[in-house]
Design a protein that fits this description.
Two copies of one chain form a homodimer.
Chain A lengths: L2 E6 L4 H8 L1 H8 L2 E6 L2 H8 L8 H18 L14 H8 L4 H16 L8 H10 L4 H8 L2 H16 L7 E4 L2 E4 L4 H8 L7 H9 L11
Parallel strand pairs in A: 1-2
Antiparallel strand pairs in A: 1-3, 3-4
Helix pairs in contact in A: 1-6, 3-9, 5-6, 5-8, 5-9, 6-7, 7-8
């Protein structure tokens, strides 16, 4: 079965919105969706950029945009008690899932805790409760989440994403092509259906063009 | 007649794509589209951010994304001979247009020169030719473009945009609400049709939430 990757961090409301569409998208396209938890902050550091929550005007815009998109998708959304929050524990527990089915249940539960139930994902009690609700062994998963093996898994997901040119979440990867943001779903589906033409020579030609202006004080 | 603003800079291929849809969008919605030329670099400096062309991974992504979106919209696009380029002359000439109809013709011609005909907009000969093709007085417009009055107009567009929280181009403004990017057209149209609910109390509540984590080395 053809598979596509869903690269995400719980910190992003757009990743939550995108994940709510993942099952129906996968079924419609006949593809398996493979989740890739990663640390968004790691992408920002690698590319020297700031996340939308770190730029006041972008944060103001994002909240309104997220509410509008949720309404358009018919998805319930609430803001977590604090944001940005530290997503490391939730990401590591997700990496520690014993199989793909358990992992999907954890992702459903963790996204829902943060973005519907207004729970703090940096609180181990919240994460434990989500794991238990998914009928998984909470002690075993929390212990695994603290292991060097699982920490290394999350790090390698983040490093691989950086190497692939991923700079934001959510990013879908299909046949090596990136599709960033919940707005990219139509183009992702067009790609999967063979309707998204991309002239690789044109891209290469464009990339080779010089710049003729630059700003003096780029942050 | 109800009016909406189209805030843009010729430097952005997304602004070009968005402008190709402006006429049909305005007619469909029965609104007048008022162009607001502004300096994207001024937005970046004000918000301390970097544009997509200033972040290599984003530039790589943007070129592919722009090509895919152009294909989906059925719009022809080519990359300018150099990019980023200095858009000041083109923006000022646009601000100097004697009326709205002339301004729209200039915008059509300048976007087309940069993003279809692969012409350099920082070359006065290109701008002169576009003005002449629009049957406008090139000497008068180029002289006006160099005047303090027109320079101040462009500056004030940019400053007003910053004050409104605009951080990118294109941004549409309808009833004080911002819609960023060509991806935002469906939400803009939903807003104009009264279908885009937005719970202002929820936004205010969300904005009041604290953060519980921050990165050490934000650029």
């Amino acid at each position: 079965m053809r598979s596509i990757e869903f690269c995400f961090d719980y910190i992003s409301p757009y990743a939550y919105l995108s994940w709510t569409q993942a099952r129906s998208l996968g079924e419609r396209q006949g593809v398996e969706v493979i989740p890739r938890p990663l640390l968004f902050a790691g992408l920002l550091s690698a590319h020297g950029t700031r996340g939308p929550a770190e730029v006041p005007a972008k944060k103001q815009y994002m909240l309104r945009d997220v509410l509008r998109k949720a309404h358009a998708l018919g998805v319930d959304i609430e803001f977590p008690p604090a944001h940005p929050f530290n997503p490391l524990l939730a990401l590591r527990v997700t990496c520690a899932a014993p199989n793909l089915d358990a992992q999907r249940k954890l992702i459903d539960g963790l996204f829902s805790a943060a973005w519907r139930e207004q729970r703090a994902l940096d609180d181990v009690a919240t994460v434990r409760e989500v794991v238990e609700r998914a009928n998984l062994d909470a002690n075993a998963l929390l212990e695994a989440a603290a292991s060097d093996r699982v920490k290394a898994t999350l790090r390698s997901h983040t490093e691989e994403a950086i190497a692939q040119g991923i700079f934001g979440v959510p990013t879908w990867v299909a046949d090596g092509e990136l599709f960033w943001g919940v707005d990219s779903h139509p183009l992702l589906e067009a790609h999967l259906e063979g309707r998204a033409e991309l002239d690789a020579d044109k891209v290469a030609r464009w990339l080779s063009r010089p710049s003729s202006a630059s700003r003096k004080n780029t942050p």
